[in-house]
Design goal:
Blueprint lengths: L48 H11 L2 H7 L1 E4 L16 H9 L4 E3 L6 H16 L8 E4 L24 H7 L2 H18 L3 E2 L23 H16 L11 E7 L18 E3 L2 H9 L2 H5 L4 E4 L3 E3 L2 E2 L2 E2 L9 H10 L6 E2 L11 H4 L22 H11 L4 E2 L5 H8 L5 H17 L10 H8 L2 H14 L1 E6 L10 E5 L3 H6 L3 E2 L8 E7 L27 H10 L4 E6 L7 H7 L5 E6 L4 H9 L16 H6 L23
Parallel strand pairs: 1-2, 1-12, 2-3, 3-4, 4-5, 5-7, 6-8, 7-11, 14-15, 14-16, 16-17, 17-18
Antiparallel strand pairs: 9-10, 13-18
EC number: 3.2.1.21
Enzyme class: hydrolase
Family: Belongs to the glycosyl hydrolase 3 family.
């Protein structure tokens, strides 16, 4: 009599949307994944991973192998194509899995127990497929403050740490590793196996909206901390362990060198501007993550104009189609043997609505980034990407174009086998074939762990940068009367302060403001959400007027959320009207954390991970490919004060 896995507990009442939470199944010696009543080699956890991969690969049809090369999006409730919502569209997900796709990004925002149950339901669907291949579930970062669709996801109970730039402001590898271990534990608790991070991009163009998720402008610092991030998430300096989370370091390479800071998600930001020397710096930033054996690498969207390999210019095509960039610089020169995952939507067609949307015809979901290969057919884009070195295509779930490329002789079966082997190997390495299920009740405990919350809040306190403390204003002891702008009165009262509406009654003022930005491309899907354009505070800005008003009346503390490299010259000048004033640069902090720093319950420890330019003209004149090269910066990289 054969042995097989007996599923314990109650699964979701119905795959079409039942609300009952599932429990983890009881784990016995093996799982009969292909439902044949026999223990086959790929089902046998005692065998070496390579043997199991080879056995399963030999059982797969060409269509099933091609399915492994797609990394789709788990649709959200109501069929939301971006996957947003509190539950999945189960019928839609079942169709995708039935088509052979078994790697997906999740963008759910729900409580931990339900998140775990939803992911269990996805694994149950996969278990019922012909070979029972489990689903790999990935996510954009979830443990920080900034949320932008296509770059990061909303929380759902995950511990809240400073932005990646904040971790860079601390600069402590051990802390970054600890963050990685904590976040990985939370990911695995809800059934997430792959982190589409870290960003080892250099933040060299101050206006770039994705700089907040980097480790700053210095390649040595980025390399060091990205390596620590990978070690933390994956569980070892030698690579991924079974209980770890696979990292996909991105975006190989030169993504941050975009003129005017326009981002490669958009047609108007499709080209980076580099030269051989600056490109070497952008490549070097990945050294630490590669040395830590990141399970995956994601090439950049952008066309790396000016970049070279062995003295020869790279082709003027996006990173996912660029063979010298992937097969040459990554695989041959750096001996990377892991999974190469494309960024999302690079094989889609970009119509006029995508390239030049209007108010009457906005971009909507016509999302595509086939930069440099727009004239090719969709099938030819898949073939070119796969032949350049892509193992898995992000954001797509239709196997037909790849199958067409194979049929036309433009993509070899051997290349498909190589990609499929890497995808399967990672699934085995993660332990998914032996048990992909999680315990929803345990997930609620893991994501509610007070120790994780304390670690995250301590990191928030350490990550903030004190740029000025004139007259020794800080720390500001309580009880004091405060006038507030942009700061929660409730948080101030909880910190022991009295909040007043009349500034004449205040002992001091705290003003919290955002870095300036403009909506320069309101009709583009990503452009309308990204912070673009100017970085400088101007005299007629509301934030400047508020700071000037406060500083002319009482000692004033200004805190600027630095999601980009703000030009603080006007604000700094306004503060000089007060003999006692202070200026903070924030990299992901709650109001409670800011007030702890103001009161002296915590000491600021951060140092700027990039310079802050002195003027808009200096920003316009700097080289987007080189970090910290603006003329006469107001604050240099590394600036940061603390209290005696």
């Amino acid at each position: 009599m054969s042995r097989h896995l007996v599923l314990g507990g109650i699964l979701l009442a119905a795959l079409a949307g039942g609300a009952a939470l599932s429990q983890a199944p009881a784990k016995t010696d093996w799982r009969d994944l292909n439902h044949n009543g026999r223990l086959d080699p790929y089902e046998d956890a005692r065998l070496p991973r390579q043997r199991r991969v080879a056995d399963l690969l030999g059982r797969m049809t060409l269509a099933e192998k091609v399915g492994l090369m797609l990394h789709g999006t788990l649709p959200g409730e109501g069929g939301n194509p971006m996957g947003l919502g509190q539950s999945y569209d189960h019928e839609g997900a079942a169709r995708l899995i039935a088509s052979g796709v078994n790697s997906f990004i999740t963008r759910l925002d729900t409580d931990p127990a339900r998140f775990a149950a939803e992911n269990n339901a996805i694994q149950k669907m996969a278990e019922q497929s012909r070979l029972g291949i489990p689903v790999t579930i990935s996510t954009d970062p979830r443990n920080h403050f900034q949320v932008t669709v296509g770059a990061s996801s909303a929380g759902g109970g995950f511990s809240q740490w400073p932005e990646t730039l904040g971790l860079a402001a601390i600069g402590d590898e051990a802390l970054v590793e600890k963050f990685g271990r904590t976040a990985a534990r939370e990911y695995r608790a809800v059934g997430i196996h792959m982190a589409l991070s870290p960003q080892a991009d250099l933040y060299t163009e101050p206006r770039w909206p994705r700089g907040t998720a980097t480790f700053g402008s210095d390649p040595a610092t980025v390399s060091r901390l990205a390596g620590a991030y990978v070690r933390g998430f994956q569980g070892s300096a030698k690579g991924l362990v079974t209980g770890g989370v696979a990292t996909v370091v991105k975006h190989w390479a030169g993504y941050g060198a975009e003129p005017e800071g326009f981002d490669g998600h958009n047609w108007y930001g499709r080209t980076a501007q580099l030269d051989s020397a600056s490109f070497r710096q952008h490549l070097a930033a990945f050294d630490g993550a590669l040395a830590a054996h990141s399970a995956g690498v994601m090439p950049t969207y952008v066309i790396p104009r000016g970049a070279t390999r062995n003295g020869k210019p790279l082709p003027l095509v996006g990173g996912g189609f660029n063979k010298p960039l992937i097969d040459g610089l990554l695989r041959q020169d750096r001996h990377f043997a892991g999974l190469v995952v494309s960024d999302w939507g690079i094989t889609n067609t970009c119509p006029e609505q995508c390239r030049a949307p209007t108010g009457e015809n906005p971009q909507g979901f016509a999302i595509a980034m086939p930069w440099g290969v727009e004239a090719l057919s969709e099938s030819d884009r898949f073939a070119m990407g796969a032949n350049a070195g892509i193992d898995q295509f992000g954001g797509v779930a239709d196997p037909a174009p790849l199958l067409q490329a194979i049929k036309a002789g433009k993509l070899s079966v051997a290349r498909v086998d190589a990609a499929a082997r890497r995808v399967l190997s990672l699934k085995f390495q993660l332990g998914l074939f032996d048990n992909p299920y999680v315990d929803p009740q345990a997930a609620a405990r893991v994501l509610g762990d007070p120790q994780s919350t304390q670690l995250a809040e301590a990191a928030q306190r350490a990550a903030q940068v004190l740029l000025a403390n004139r007259g020794g204003l800080l720390p500001l002891s309580a009880p004091r009367k405060l006038w507030l702008s942009g700061v929660s009165a409730e948080a101030a009262r909880a910190a022991g302060f009295t909040v007043v509406d009349d500034i004449a009654q205040a002992d001091a003022a705290i003003v919290r403001v955002a870095t300036p930005h403009e909506v320069l491309h309101p009709n583009h899907f990503f452009g309308r959400m990204q912070h673009e354009g100017r970085l400088d505070f101007r005299p007629d800005d509301e934030a400047t007027r508020t700071v000037a008003y406060a500083a002319s009346r009482v000692p004033t503390i200004v805190a600027v959320d630095l999601d980009r490299a703000a030009v603080l010259t006007v604000l700094n000048d306004a503060l000089r009207h007060s003999p006692r004033s202070a200026l903070f640069g924030l990299f992901g902090a709650s109001d409670a954390v800011l007030l702890d720093l103001v009161s002296g319950k915590a000491r600021p420890q951060g140092h700027l991970p990039f310079e802050l330019p002195s003027s808009a003209q200096a920003v316009a004149e700097q080289d987007p490919a080189r970090g910290d090269d603006s003329r006469n910066p107001l604050f240099a990289r590394g600036a940061g004060l603390t209290y005696p």
